[in-house]
Amino acid sequence: MMNCLPELRSLPLSLPAVQKQVDELLGQAGLRREALDYYAGLFCGEQLIAGGGYSGNTMKCIAVLPEAEGLGLINQLVTHLRQQMQSSGIDNIFVFTKPRNLAVFQNLAFTAVAATDDVLFLESEKRGIARFCQALAKAKQPGCSSGIVMNCNPFTLGHLALIEAAAAVSDTVHVLLLQTEQPLFSFAARWQMLEAGTAHLAKVKMHAGGPYSIAAGLFPAYFLKSAGVAAAVQIDLDLTLFTRYLAPALAISRRFAGEEPLDALTAQYNERMQQILPAAGIAVEIIPRQRTQDGSIISASRVRALLTQSDWDDIALMVPSSTMRYLNQHRQELMACV
Description:
Layout: E1 7-10, H1 16-28, E2 38-44, E3 47-55, E4 58-64, H2 73-87, E5 94-97, H3 102-106, E6 111-115, E7 120-123, H4 128-137, E8 145-150, H5 157-168, E9 172-177, H6 187-197, E10 204-208, H7 227-250, E11 252-258, H8 264-276, E12 283-287, H9 300-308, H10 312-316, H11 321-329, H12 331-337
Parallel strand pairs: 4-5, 8-9, 8-11, 9-10, 11-12
Antiparallel strand pairs: 1-2, 2-3, 3-4, 5-7, 6-7
Helix pairs in contact: 4-7, 6-11, 7-8
């Protein structure tokens, strides 16, 4: 089988037979398939001996049959995937993989950004994160700077209370907004609500989180055993990026977050934050969760649920007037999405 010249083919993952073939290849490598924009395979006859794909700006699900290792197939695949991604307008290509694959991707001109015991994060631009941090550093301010990483999906009174608590004890509050597109609220919409909701706070500096604030749900976990393991690994990598790059760029010495009595993943994130950040010289402040007058916990997820019920009166109890104005202005399109 290995005496043939491998043939490269694009694989339509919409076909069940192709899915089965790819899943068998990935399974032999201890991987599992995730949502992909494109996948290609190398064939010896009709035998799929190697494959790889990408989703957005991230290569993933790259695997080679054990008996085909050492034949340079990964080089061929990654070169092809890089060409496909660049032709689609993707300049900086990311790879999340097992740490033992460092040498493989360094030989393919990828640069390591960060690593934990379980994951290695690389990018194709040699100075990608350095340039991102240089741009952030232009907003660095003298005095005590605090940081908050937010999703604001949408911006609530809880978000506002957290920012105001940070502003009360800081010279500057840097708010990094997760740069992802959400089903109801785009990044541009969330930025608009955050900007309007904090317009009265001169200490607040807003920043796009960029690709180096890793949102839950977007972290590639195809090489990890379970969703629980993936969550823990994503949290540690995200906090490693924050402590090593983002916080130093803005001279952040304290990070604020809201307590989380409802969402187990966010509660786990807060717990790890309190373990990791102080060791890097960054204090952590957890602020009690805001509630409405009837004792209901204010949360963006609750606001989204109320949107599905068209419960505008209860929504108004959980969001600042600036967010309510935005919701009313976009009520028709929001109702078409829920």
